[in-house]
Design goal:
The complex is a heterodimer of chains A (about 375) and B (about 300). By secondary structure, chain A is mainly α. Chain A folds into two domains: about 1-40 and about 330-365, no CATH class; about 55-320, ABC transporter involved in vitamin B12 uptake, BtuC. Chain A is built from 16 helices and no strands. In chain A, helix 4 (about 55-80) packs across helix 14 and helix 14 crosses helix 15. Chain A is globular and about 70 Å long. In chain A, about 55% of the residues are buried. By secondary structure, chain B is mainly alpha-helical. Chain B has a domain at about 25-230. Chain B has helices at about 10-35, 45-65, 65-90, 95-115, 140-145, 150-170, 170-180, 180-185, 190-220, 230-240, 245-265, 275-295; strands spanning about 130, 145-150. The longest helix of chain B is centred in the first third of the chain and has 30 residues, at about 10-35. The N and C termini of chain B lie far apart (about 70 Å). The chains are: A mainly alpha (about 375), B mainly alpha (about 300). Chains A and B meet through helix 7, helix 14 and helix 16 of A and helix 4, helix 10 and helix 12 of B.
């Protein structure tokens, strides 16, 4: 048995399954919390499952929710691989959406597909700017990016509220007293096409294609190799002649760009306008945070992040059904997401230990050290 | 109008509420100072504050005793700190990311309990103002400094206490050495893990109290996500204050004064959009980080897990 556990592929399989164990542990803890709240956990989880996968409509909703998660997650894969912690997904989504919405409301004469392409690009650029600023501050002024991205989130929310209540407000809302902070609706030609007769839109497909492209970028190009090298060992990278500051900015900028795109697809694929309740999550649905969870769960691998995003999309959609059926507030899912993050990063220690053992068994014959771990940040300063 | 902002009463009002608003930041940031000086970045402050705020509010409301509420916040903070300590010290998990996990847990959990346990909106009679005899009668000064509730006074007292503990006691020396060079501290017989457990749990307790100072001191209500980022700002203030309690005090005051000014700008309907006003403290924080961080050095072992070589 011991020998089996130590054999190479079994050990790698256990590594791959660690996030699954982490999720199971979180669900079990969640069940205990439900028991304390006098709710039958089996009923609650059954409602959750049914809400996420119970019908083709439900499953389509799950995929719709998974789309922004995946887009944010593949950005997170880039930045965390580059040892840059991007907590600013919320703000980057918002700015991306503002840019994209502005395009759609300004250039109404363009053919549909041109406008959509331009709008998605605008979202990409908006997110890139909002991610690039903290990246620049980290690289050249040593400002901790965790803090600056959190601040950038708060600033983006206020910018959104200002624009959606003022300069960009829906003219019909400007006239009535309620003044819901929302923009005018995009014209029909500018809406992302639906894939099947549900709310599932083209954005989901775009996200999957981009996940594959980011995988290629990270593991099959020099650029990606350098981003990862800077993340793994900044000092060695500097000696190797890599301008590490430039790659820090780049990885946060790209990370923000994908979050910005997530914001743009929310506008063009789901709501057809930008709308909020005054809070960040009012627009993003907290995808900027949950995308981090999905990426960590996906082991910071863009392809594995696809099923991971679907899983968390399912949790979010299912939570609404759970709230209706057994009166458990959907906030439970946020708490569970938090536990999953804690468990996943905590379980890294076993992966590291087994990796060490694998290396010592192999007697360092394989040469290059494997790079599949979430490496603790060298310095966050 | 803008000229309204510069009348004496308004100025005193801005300064007095600035002092009050600094309270939660002080508790949380002083706690974070301890944990960072020992080499641990606790990013879960916001979650600890939210759970502390809820625990204090709920227990105060159901028992009618504010001090029991405080105790509840303290215990909840300690429990969160204990979990964080186990994850970062024993399991050597990445501190920034696990902190985000604890934040999400606190965010979801406090909202869940709030919705489940409190079907109706309620308010609590928070800690009353204590007018320091004599001093509170001084015109202006009295209102600014000596007319606050007990939690405000304790928060400000905490600053010299933290300075003393960190710089003048053996415990403080151990904390600092663990944060600068854990290997050396270990070889001198300091138990690195135990020191970090202590500082992280202390940080959790102070974050819990920070939350309580909002829910049963400043605002006297609980709302979903009521801290709205102040836990993260508290972490930023530690960088801002160059890991020194006095610097943290300066940062907390600057931040809360700008915030207070921003609130008065809205009240006085100065022609600045309120959203832009609310943005100011955050923009300021980033600018200040740019100006200060590159000139000071973080504890060398910050965010680095310690593993004893055998």
């Amino acid at each position: 048995m011991k020998k089996l556990l130590q054999s190479d592929w079994v050990s790698r399989l256990i590594d791959a399954l660690l996030p699954v164990f982490a999720t199971l542990a979180a669900l079990i803890l969640g069940a205990i919390m439900l028991l304390f709240l006098k709710v039958n956990p089996i009923e609650a989880y059954a409602a959750l499952w049914d809400g996420a996968f119970g019908s083709s409509n439900a499953f389509a909703e799950t995929l719709v929710k998974a789309t922004p998660l995946l887009l944010v997650a593949i950005g997170i894969c880039i930045s965390f691989r580059g040892d840059v912690i991007n907590i600013g997904g919320e703000g980057q989504m918002i700015i991306g959406a503002i840019f994209a919405t502005w395009v759609g409301l300004t250039f109404t004469d363009l053919p549909g597909w041109v406008a959509i392409t331009l709008a998605l690009l605008a979202g990409f650029v908006g997110g890139a700017i909002w991610g690039g600023i903290p990246g620049f501050l980290k690289a050249y002024f040593r400002v901790n990016e965790i803090l600056s991205t959190v601040m950038m989130n708060a600033i983006a929310v206020q910018l959104m509220n200002f624009l959606l209540r003022g300069p960009m407000i829906d003219p019909s809302q400007a006239e009535v007293a309620s003044k819901i902070p929302q923009t005018a609706r995009l014209i029909d030609a500018f809406q992302l096409p639906r894939l099947i007769p549900t709310r599932l839109h083209l954005g989901a497909l775009i996200a999957v294609i981009l996940a594959i492209l980011v995988y290629i970028l990270l593991w099959r190009t020099t650029l990606g190799y350098r981003i990862r090298a800077v993340g793994q060992n900044p000092h060695a990278s500097r000696y190797a002649g890599i301008k590490i500051q430039r790659y820090m900015v780049l990885s946060l900028l790209l990370s923000g760009a994908f979050a910005g795109l997530a914001g743009a697809t929310q506008v063009y694929g789901v709501n057809y306008r930008m709308i909020t309740d005054g809070s960040a999550s009012g627009f993003t649905g907290s995808a900027g945070f949950n995308g981090i969870v999905a990426a960590l769960f996906g082991q910071l691998h863009p392809i594995i992040s696809i099923p991971a995003s679907i899983l968390f999309g399912a949790l979010l959609v299912g939570a609404n059904k759970m709230q209706r059926m057994v009166q458990v507030p959907s906030a439970l899912v946020i708490a569970l997401n938090g536990l999953v993050v804690v468990f996943v990063v905590s379980s890294e220690i076993w992966r590291r230990r087994r990796q060490k053992r694998r290396l010592s068994v192999a007697g360092h014959e394989e040469g290059s050290p494997p790079d599949e771990t979430i490496k603790p940040a060298e310095t966050i300063a | 109008m803008i000229s309204d902002l510069f009348s004496m009463t308004v100025l005193i009002g801005i300064l007095a509420s600035g002092i009050r608003l600094a309270t939660p930041y002080l508790y949380a940031a002083i706690g974070e100072t301890f944990s960072q000086r020992s080499g641990v970045l606790n990013l879960g402050v916001e979650g600890q504050m939210l759970l502390g705020a809820f625990a204090a509010f709920y227990v105060s409301l159901t028992t009618g005793n504010l001090w029991l509420g405080m105790l509840a916040a303290l215990l909840v903070g300690a429990a969160m700190g204990l979990a964080m300590a186990y994850v970062t010290v024993n399991l050597q998990a990445e501190q920034g990311i696990s902190g985000i996990g604890f934040y999400l847990f606190g965010l979801g959990m406090s909202d869940l309990l709030f919705q489940k346990l409190m079907p109706t909106v309620e308010t609590v009679q928070g800690f009353p103002k204590i007018y320091i005899p004599g001093l509170s009668d001084i015109p202006g000064i009295g209102e600014i400094f000596f007319s606050h509730n007990i939690l405000v006074y304790i928060a400000f007292l905490l600053v010299p206490i933290a300075w003393f503990v960190l710089n003048k006691t053996t415990l403080g020396l151990k904390i600092r050495s663990v944060g600068e060079n854990p290997e050396a501290a270990d070889s001198l017989g300091v138990n690195v893990g135990r020191i970090r457990y202590f500082t992280i749990i202390l940080g959790g307790i102070l974050s819990g109290i920070a939350g309580a100072s909002l829910s049963i001191g400043l605002l006297n209500v609980f709302q979903q996500n009521m801290t709205s980022g102040s836990g993260f700002i508290a972490v930023a203030l530690v960088y801002f204050g160059a890991w020194r309690p006095i610097g943290v005090l300066g940062g907390a005051l600057l931040f809360s004064m700008v915030n207070s000014l921003q609130l008065w700008i809205q009240v006085k309907s100065v022609p600045i959009p309120s959203e832009i006003a609310i943005m100011m403290p955050y923009v300021l924080t980033i600018l200040v980080l740019v100006a200060t961080v590159s000139r000071v050095r973080a504890p060398s072992a910050l965010t680095k897990p310690f593993e004893r070589e055998n």
